UniProtKB/TrEMBL annotation:
<dbReference type="GO" id="GO:0003677">
    <property type="term" value="F:DNA binding"/>
</dbReference>
<dbReference type="InterPro" id="IPR014284">
    <property type="entry name" value="RNA_pol_sigma-70_dom"/>
</dbReference>
<keyword id="KW-0804">Transcription</keyword>
<keyword id="KW-0240">DNA-directed RNA polymerase</keyword>
<feature type="domain" description="RNA polymerase sigma factor 70 region 4 type 2">
    <location>
        <begin position="112"/>
        <end position="163"/>
    </location>
</feature>
<keyword id="KW-0238">DNA-binding</keyword>
<dbReference type="InterPro" id="IPR014325">
    <property type="entry name" value="RNA_pol_sigma-E_actinobac"/>
</dbReference>
<dbReference type="InterPro" id="IPR039425">
    <property type="entry name" value="RNA_pol_sigma-70-like"/>
</dbReference>
<dbReference type="InterPro" id="IPR013249">
    <property type="entry name" value="RNA_pol_sigma70_r4_t2"/>
</dbReference>
<comment type="similarity">
    <text>Belongs to the sigma-70 factor family. ECF subfamily.</text>
</comment>
<dbReference type="Pfam" id="PF08281">
    <property type="entry name" value="Sigma70_r4_2"/>
</dbReference>
<dbReference type="GO" id="GO:0006352">
    <property type="term" value="P:DNA-templated transcription initiation"/>
</dbReference>
<dbReference type="Pfam" id="PF04542">
    <property type="entry name" value="Sigma70_r2"/>
</dbReference>
<keyword id="KW-0731">Sigma factor</keyword>
<keyword id="KW-0805">Transcription regulation</keyword>
<dbReference type="InterPro" id="IPR036388">
    <property type="entry name" value="WH-like_DNA-bd_sf"/>
</dbReference>
<dbReference type="GO" id="GO:0016987">
    <property type="term" value="F:sigma factor activity"/>
</dbReference>
Amino acid sequence: MGDQKRARDEEFQSFVIGCWPGLLRTAFLLSGEQHAAEDLVQSTLEKVYVAWRRVSSADAPEAYVRRVLINTHARRHRRRLKEFLSPKDDSGLAHERPDPGDQMARADSRSALLKALAQLPPRQRQAVVLRYWEDLTETQTAQAMGCSVGAVKSNAAKGIAKLRAIPGLDEMVTTGGRK
């Protein structure tokens, strides 16, 4: 019994090491704060560890964990939705420690883009983050969000439209952040 538990723990540890950067990036883009993102990933992984047998036997364990992350985030902020949608202090956005290999980390428009992303309603933010940062298909995004493909298309389109409507942001994106 001890050897099985040890093997399962090692398998879980390997999984966490492999998916941590992606989960942290997604959590950061959803929450807008580095520390909140780390807490969100930690809480998600605690839930996943308890159900690791079921998760590890899933067809796509990382997609399963991403869904748990999104659900955990939604549950945390459901009660404080109004406060969450209009943050008074966005200084946490400047404290993210980007992955050195992350192309987005090197963009000049990163700060402006993250502030704009924080202004989106949660479902639109989720759709934009999963479709365009995580590069998931519409079907994968719908599965992760627990909604239809049509809802993903609608939320992503509305989110992108709101991002494009922000003065100055559209020019940075169309010029690739170059002036």
